[in-house]
Structures are given as C-alpha cells and as structure tokens.
Amino acid sequence: MSELNHLQQQIASLLQECEQRLSAAEQQGGRTGPRTTESETVNQTANSKNRSKNRAANQAALEQLIEAYPQTFSRDNVRPLKIGIQEDLIADDKLARNRIKRALATYVRSIHYLRSVKEGADRVDLAGEVAGTVTAAEAEHAAARLKEIQAQRKERQKQERMKEQEARKQQKDDRLSRKLEALVNLKGR
CA 111, 112, 116 angle in degrees (round to 5)? Predict the structure, then answer.
C-alpha cells in the first residue's frame, strides 16, 4: 500500500509541476501579442495566391519580351535599357501594352538589372545598340534601391525565423498540455 501512496504522491507532484509550467507558458503566450484570427489567415492566404498569380503573369510577360527582343532583353546578360524604351516597345506593336508594362516593371526591378545600372554603363535600345549611358544619379538610385531590397529581405527572414520559433514554442506547449491531460486522466483512474 505504501508503494501506491508513493506513486500517488509522485503523480501529484508531477501534476503540480505541469500545471505551473502550463501557467507560465500561457502567461508568456499572452505577452507575445494577439493571435491571428481565422479571417486574417484566410485573407493572408488569398493575398498570397493573388501575388503568386501576378508573379506568374509577370514572368510570362517577361518571357515574351525576351523572345521578341533577345538582343535587348536577357536573363544572362542584363544591361541598362534606353530611357523611353517603353514607348519604343508600344510603337513596335509586337506585344500588348499591358504585357509590356508588366514585363518592363519585372525586368527593371530585378536585382540583376539594378546591379547593371552603374555609372557610365551603356544603355541599349530595341536593336541592342548603344543608346546613352547611365548617369551618376541613376546609378545612386539603383544602389539605394538594392539596399532597400536587401533590408526588406533581411526583415522578411527575421519575421520567418520569429514565426518558426513561435511555432516550435506552440508545439512544445501543445506537448506539455497533452502530457498534463494524460496525467490528469491517470490521476482520475
């Protein structure tokens, strides 16, 4: 009988310890900020799908531009474009205006393009011929934009790490909760 009493005391002690840890975890969880609601999650998912669709449409438009003007547009040999090339593309009438705008926006916002915009670099026209040079101000603007993109990437990575840590913490709390529940069930028998 004393062994049974000893086991009951151990279970009671473990149960009390689990309750304390659970309370501490709940208090810490309350300080991390508000939880995401179901409607927010749905909206985030919808926005993510829209971004993916837009990204795919932009990439498809860029592929058409690369195919139509391989001497000017390339993924391997990215060069600064002539100022006013959009009007030249529209006048050439090989692609729809909205496709041209999508493709150009995707192309000139890419990291490879921004890196190519160096002071004194030659700009190219639709035939791939030199059509001006990059000014110091344009090069500075491109460098500043690159820094912004890198800062945004670092911030996104930081946010992702925080989400992963929160998910691991939640998993740990869930395991603790299941163990507590199992102990309560054990004690009730």
Answer: 115
